[in-house]
Amino acid sequence: MSVFLCGPLAEPRILDIVAGPDVAALATQAAKVSGYMLLGPDAMWFPALAERKDHCVEGLLLRDPSAHIVSRIEFLMQGVGAAPREIVLTDGRLAICFVTDHAPDDTAGWQAATWRAKWGLIAQAACQEIMGYVGRIDQQGLIWRMPMILARAGAQVAAAAGAPADLRSAASADQVQVTSVDTPHEGFFLTREYALHHPQYDGGTSDLLRREVFVVSDAALVLPYDPRRDRVLLVEQFRMGPFGRGDPRPWALEPVAGRIDAGETPEQAAYRECIEETGLHLSGLERISGHYCSPGCSTEYFHLFLGLCDLPDEGRTLGGLDSEAEDIRSHVIPFDRAMALLDSGEANNGPLVLSLIWLSKERDRLRAIA
């Protein structure tokens, strides 16, 4: 049976990715369906059809696609919460479309130009990863991975902006010759193994190198600071890094931190994470840095901020999201005690060290304007 495609599924680049090598054999034509609406609020990266009276959706009719292509489309749509349904098009023909039952009544309609500007590149990157799982994981496995798939896609798009190369080499990543790419681990996180040659400073090319990289998302980190009371807030939680290294005390003092979700700016993530982890509403942000935390083996990129706020009296509180299994304790302490943590070595988390050093340099300015 034919398949009705609309919204992102009808975008040529998305359809190329989803159909795979068989895309050249596809036959499509314009089509419409009544009684449905393509939902597209700003936060939805891949909207689906929902039943709505007095609405009509234009799209493409994929005529008699192979069972293989239909299964690939269905796999993707399962990940975004849509199920196949037989419908009647406005011209009377039957087709399969993918419909969601989980859309609120007040959801706005999809706007193609708005979607392309915010989600187009992110959706392409996410679909590339999703299609790589076809035939290897089930629907629940895909749904479980979706938050990180989208976060990785957002990070990939953000990375394309690059950074200046006034001192370092301006050689392009396109000059790296990749022989093979494997993904030996595909859980919530990914590990990719590359075999490659890269340009050398003497004008030559390296021998074949095999390197593994831990593929994660970008993160926003915030050190909350009250310039009037000269206090900072630190969070403390159990961390697998110290535990896996053999540290006898794997609870770490840190700034507030969290993943930047797809479609979210680092600043938006910073404000959100402060509320989720500590219940704290910031009055403003000061950017400290944007940097790779461990560029030799990880894709993780940190956006580090100082968060201006009013802090309560000194003490400890508990916080975090149960849905993310967070068990977080917050400490409100004077600036001088925070700096003493640097001297003692108890502050052994890189972003915290960097934030406190930055604060020591900017503290007088911040207090003067508070």
TrEMBL record:
Keywords: Hydrolase, Magnesium, Metal-binding. GO terms for cellular component: cytosol. A motif (Nudix box) lies at residues 258-280. Residues 215-355 form the Nudix hydrolase domain. It holds the Pfam family NUDIX. Acts on ADP-mannose and ADP-glucose as well as ADP-ribose. Prevents glycogen biosynthesis. The reaction catalyzed by this enzyme is a limiting step of the gluconeogenic process. Belongs to the Nudix hydrolase family. NudF subfamily. This is ADP-ribose pyrophosphatase. The lineage of its organism: Bacteria, Pseudomonadati, Pseudomonadota, Alphaproteobacteria, Rhodobacterales.
